């Protein structure tokens, strides 16, 4: 940027996107300063290097803004729900209701069934609880990660069928089933 550009000549692109031709770097910097802007090297590997006249502060601000937007549009936050294989039916209903809210908001839900002491002998009890959750949430969720035993925890993941923006994940699920 500006004085950091050490090559003798650069191909200059104006603030409006038009090519201004090949200039001496010093002249290009002076031209940028006269417009109240900066000379930013865009493609240093080209011969001659390409530099653009732009407001560098505004450019950095917009880049940061784009990155934040891209981060927001990712698959969504992962919410974790922990429960025991001996969970009371009413408590399970409450947890399922909360999971439904998370899934409708576009978040993925990680379900962790934890076993205490000798409960680990009855892994099938935890699988039944997991299957019950999937059955009750089948209208809003699909299994992303099948439940598997990790230590004393049975862990699985659900993903929303539709994202908050209204896009459907059902198509990708159907395609996976065919292959």
Return the structural class: alpha/beta
Look at the structure and give the CATH class of the largest domain: Alpha Beta
Please give the order of strands in the largest beta sheet: 2-1-4-3
CATH superfamily of the largest domain: Translation initiation factor 3 (IF-3), C-terminal domain
Low-confidence stretches: 167-179
Rounded to the nearest angstrom, the distance between the terminal CA atoms is 50 Å
Number of domains: 2
Fraction of residues in β-strands: 25-35%
- Helical fraction equals 25-40%
Give the overall shape, derived from the CA principal axes. Answer: rod-shaped
Instruction: Quote the average pLDDT.
Output: 86
Helix and strand element order: EEHEEHEHEHEEH
Number of helices: 5
Give the biggest beta sheet: 4 strands, mixed
CATH topological fold name of the largest domain? Translation Initiation Factor IF3
CATH architecture of the largest domain: 2-Layer Sandwich
Please compute the radius of gyration using only Cα atoms. Answer: 28 Å
Tell me the number of strands.
8
Textual characterization of the structure:
This protein is α/β, with parallel strands linked by helices. Helix content is 37%, strand content 30%. The chain has helices spanning 25-34, 56-72, 89-104, 123-136, 170-178, and strands at residues 9-13, 19-24, 38-43, 50-54, 78-83, 108-114, 141-150, 153-160. The strands form two sheets. A four-stranded mixed beta sheet has the order 2-1-4-3. Strands 5-6-8-7 form a four-stranded mixed beta sheet, with helices on one face. The longest helix is centred in the middle third of the chain and has 17 residues, at 56-72. The radius of gyration is 28 Å and the shape is rod-shaped. The model is unreliable at 167-179 (pLDDT under 50).
